[in-house]
Amino acid sequence: MVCWRASRAGLIALSASGLALLGSIGVDAVSAQASYEVEPREPQFLYDRTCGYCHGHNVGPILLGRGLSPQIVSYFVRNGNGAMPAFKPTEITDTELEALAAWISVSQSDETEHGQ
Q1: Best exposed site among 41, 46, 85, 96 by fewest CB in 10 Å?
Q2: CA nearest 15: which of 4, 7, 3?
Q3: Range of the domain at 84
């Protein structure tokens, strides 16, 4: 029983010191670390690394130069279609998707792409 009381007292002391540490660095510092913002990636980068893996390489239809509306692009990115997976906001943020969809809608065709 003595060991239990000693370890329990030690645990209480550690908890209290942890709370004191949080108070000394400020709650704002802790929450700021947990909710940082990431700089949005450029549309060309996203297309090359995500979309272009299939589109324009005989897997998915060619997107560039087709004049697709940003709303159509956004819908398919978020909802998927057939073999195309849906991309969550944790994979492509809403800000990135808005820029990507606008970029695809005004893009010129790329002669290096092939397929449907």
Answers
A1: 85
A2: 7
A3: 43-106
How far is the C-alpha of 110 from the C-alpha of 28, rounded, in Å?
48
Question: Is the domain of 50 the same as that of 14?
Answer: no
* 26 shares its domain with 61: no
Asked if residue 58 lies in contact with residue 115, where contact means CB atoms within 8 angstroms, the answer is yes
pTM above 0.70, yes or no: no
Handedness of CA 19, 21, 22, 26 (dihedral sign): positive
6 pLDDT band, cuts 50/70/90, is low
* Interatomic CA distance for residues 57 and 2, integer angstroms: 71
- 95 and 49 in one domain? yes
Q: What is the CATH number of the domain that holds 90?
A: 1.10.760.10
Q: Identify whether the C-beta of residue 63 lies closer than 8 Å to the C-beta of residue 56.
A: yes
The reported pLDDT for the residue numbered 61 is 94
Average pLDDT, the chain: 80
Domain count, the chain: 2
Alpha-carbon torsion (43, 44, 49, 50), positive or negative: positive
